[in-house]
Amino acid sequence: MSNAPHSSSDRAGAVARLLTLLDLETIETDLFRGHSTGEGWIRVYGGQVVAQALMAASRTVPDGRLCHSLHSYFIRPGDPAQPILYKVERDRDGQSFTTRRVIAIQKGRPIFNMAASFQAEEAGLEHAFAAAVDVPHPDTLESDAQWAQRNAPQAPEPWRTIWLTRDRPLDVRAVDDNDFFNPAVMPPRQRNWVRLAADVPTDPVLSRALFAYASDMTLLDTCLGPHAISWNDPRLQSASLDHAIWFNATPDMNQWHLFDQDSPMAAGGRGMNRAIVHTLAGAPVATVMQEGLIRFRP
């Protein structure tokens, strides 16, 4: 097995497969079918379900209305070997806003639900927190693919095989480094630069879905920082419980975005995580919130 970094063709292929995942099959009016990747996941990646549900809802919305917020719950683990049905409910079509609900179904049972609101674009009052200024440029940081190649030899299975063989559709670069296997106690904050591993055509609906896919990738890690617990620790049980996104603008995932993440609190076996996302130029793009299960059984 080669330890060479993945080539640009590998990355382009991974992004192409991601676009295929988001191109849902229409089964019937307001009923869509999606599939999962065969990349070694033991359950369906949460960001994939959010992105596919958003694409399903967007298929039922009038042109010119884009998602400005979504709120979702993960109900059951998804099986990557089975297709997922997405059933859309058309709650309201108003003069400015459109509201949709989506239920993701697998084996006859709901695994996920989402409410999303869409708005016709309009001008309005504007203000935003300033982007962090003490963050190194992503070009000076190690990519997650390079990190995986470097750390795979000391990783147990199945991490080793996944890290060495999985083609990543996202290029993720951590600003705040920590030892995956023996993490130190860290503040409940982490920052990551994220973009697609290969360019895609810009489309506002697809761009929001691609952002939704990326938004679940590193968020839950944030609340583990103060507790020095590795994802590899068998005593840890973790899962995304809910996920919300507020869009300030259309994200261009061909470009770098800084996910400035923090965890305001953890209690009751759950951790709260937040990300404020800016472009490389410092423009605000979105805010993401997620509560995750972080059950630790010493």
What do these coordinates show?
The protein is an alpha+beta fold and 298 residues long. The chain has one domain (8-123, 136-296): Porin (Beta Barrel), CATH 2.40.160. The protein is 18% helix and 37% strand. The chain has helices at residues 8-22, 46-58, 144-151, 159-165, 204-215; strands at residues 25-28, 31-34, 65-74, 84-93, 97-106, 109-120, 170-174, 189-196, 236-247, 257-267, 270-279, 284-296. It has a 12-stranded antiparallel beta sheet with strand order 1-2-4-5-6-3-9-12-11-10-8-7. Helix 2 packs antiparallel against helix 5 (204-215). Residues 1-6 have low confidence and may be disordered.
The average pLDDT is 91
Number of domains: 1
Q: Approximately how much beta-strand content do the residues carry? A: 35-45%
* CATH first level: Mainly Beta
CATH superfamily, by name, is Acyl-CoA thioesterase, double hotdog domain
**How can the largest sheet be summarized?**
12 strands, antiparallel
What gap, in angstroms, lies between the N and C termini?
36 Å
* Number of strand segments: 12
